[in-house]
Amino acid sequence: MGQIELEREAMSLDAKSRAELARKLLHSLDDLSEAELEVLWAKEAHRRFSAFERGEMKSYSREEACFLVTNFAYLPVNREKLKDFKQSNLE
Question: Pick from 22, 62, 82, 87: most CB atoms within 10 A?
Fold first, then answer.
C-alpha cells in the first residue's frame, strides 16, 4: 500500500482511532537521531512550500496564524469567526 492509500485509510478512521494512530506515529519518531529529524523537517518544509507555490496551500499572516492557533486548536476553521477577526484586526 502506498502513502496516499495509507493516508486515505487513516483519514477514514474514527477520531479516537486517528488520535491513537497519531500518538503511535509521533512516539515512533522518538527513535530518530537529531540529523534524521532535521532531514524529515526539511523535506516537509519543501513539500509545504512546493504546495504553496502550486496554489494548493493557503498562506496566513502571523496575526491570522496566531488567532487560528489560539481559537481553533485542532478544530475545523470557522470561516465566519476568521472573517470577523480579519475585519476587526487587519483592515
Answer: 82
